Amino acid sequence: MMTFEGFSDNKVSFAQIPGPFFSQLLPQIDHLGELKVTIYALWRLGRMDGKFRYLRQVDFLEDDVFMLGMETDAADAESALRESISRAVKRGSLLVASVDVAGDESCLYFFNTSKGRAAVEAIQKGNWRYSNDSHIAVELVPERANIYQLYEQNIGPITPMLSEAMQDAEDNYPSEWIEEAFRIAVEMNARNWRYVEAILRRWQERGYDVRKDRQDTEKDTPEDFRRYSRGSLAGYLRSED
Fold first, then answer.
1. Residues 6 or more apart whose Cβ sits within 8 Å of residue 218
2. What is the distance between the alpha carbons of residues 85 and 94, in angstroms, rounded to a whole number?
């Protein structure tokens, strides 16, 4: 039996473990491997960056020190790891989501927190993308601001009359169009909804072309804008009532 010689007198880092782990989860765990996997996941995820953090089976396997603690034989250690992770998932301390990475299915393990649950839900909805980081297989797509947030951030308070019109726009136009239309309106110093709506109508009729639209907005006449909106050019250049 190996013995522990104690912690060094040098400065050591500490891992954060939620209080409910000791009062709720620990009393339920009756398998040593599951306990090791659970504590290791807490420590490893706590050292990672990013809003949503996950581990893959390979992350456990590549940690030689941890795997030696599972079993001395490599094949037995991998088998023990799979069983231990499966137990943690079955208990609910770890959540799992499967994704297709370059044609291969990969399981991502999240700790069962509000962020972990949100991450799994987002993956199940398809809101994830490949990552350029070789250590991170996939990453969640940042949540887009909705049309009301974009308006309040770039123009101002929303009036009841505008709310219905913006809801129709959110239902009818892709979110990337809406974001870019607001961006163009800000750049053109035309911070009002009619101007944003005119850009969206233009894209719907002519096709989505951000580069061309940036050029065209500088030379449009009032007649051009009347074609895409109910108001006049003067209406674009003032805030809504």
1. 188
2. 8
Q: Give the integer Cα–Cα distance in Å for 205 and 1.
A: 76
Across-strand partners of 55? 109
Q: What does the pLDDT look like over 68-116, one tens digit per residue?
A: 999 999 999 999 999 999 999 999 999 999 987 767 788 999 999 988 9
Question: Are 238 and 192 in contact, with CB atoms under 8 Å apart?
Answer: yes
Q: Residue 239 and residue 97: Cα distance in Å, rounded?
A: 46
Enter the tokens of residue 166. 């913006």
Q: What is the token pair recorded at 30? A: 């009756």
H/E stretch holding 109 = strand 104-111
Q: Is the pLDDT of residue 201 over 70?
A: yes
Predicted model pTM: 0.58
